[in-house]
Amino acid sequence: MVTILFFVGLIGNVIGTLAGGSGLLTLPTMLLLGVPTHSAIGANKISSFASTLSAILTVISKKQLSKEEFIPILLIGSIGGMVGGVTASFLTTKALTLIAIILLMFALVLSILGKTNFGERAKLTLNKKVSALLVAIGFYDGLFGPGSGTLFIYVFATEKLTYMKCVLLGRIGVFSTCLGAAIVYISSGYILWYETIFLTIGSILGAQIGMRLVQYISNKVAQLILRGITIILIGQLVLEFLAH
Questions:
Q1: What is the CB neighbour count within 10 angstroms for residue 184?
Q2: Radius of gyration over every alpha carbon of the chain, rounded to an integer in angstroms
Q3: Domain range enclosing 138
Q4: pTM for the model
Q5: What gap in Å lies between CA 148 and CA 161, rounded to an integer?
Q6: Residue 98 half-sphere exposure, CB side, CA atoms within 13 Å?
Q7: Burial per residue of 122-155, b for 16 or more beta-carbon CB atoms within 10 angstroms, e otherwise
Q8: Domain count, the chain
């Protein structure tokens, strides 16, 4: 079981770094292996926190992001993630799945209409709209999670940032929300540490591979990858919704 979790974490986080959607593999796999829902979500939060931290340290060491860009995202996202994590116990899995489907379908429509295509801007200027969206995604990520990394990329794409910058900021966003949510899940006693550690090791390696691949992908190819992952995510979540 732990070997499966290691490779699922690795592959999922290569995909997750490039276009979000690591939960597309990790969460369903853990559930299929018999891990309780809240323990599986908590394990994903911890593994995502660790993998995005490793990616962020790489980004900071290469000076690819300024403090003015990533510190506000860290603060906003962590607050949303903590509130979402606390709220999660009050909602059913079916309700959370429906929320995810609606959010991802909305993001996909905006992408097709050209509202969230990548641009050429190299620096983020945080405004009220982006801040509100970051809080909302942080809240959703703390609640459930699948698709949140993809939604972060869509939000930054609305500011016409380059694909590379959207991915880097998206990793910051996922890190911040997972930090807040992971604290809640750990304190609630949901974590199965043996399984979580193997998932986390694979996730860290996957994130590092993804960070090395992202620099070779053009904006146009990235848009196709993002839409493809979004469609797969929606399909998977619809099947989960119908199964409950």
A1: 21
A2: 16
A3: 2-243
A4: 0.83
A5: 18
A6: 7
A7: eebeeeeebeebbbebbbbbbbbbbbbbbbbbbb
A8: 1
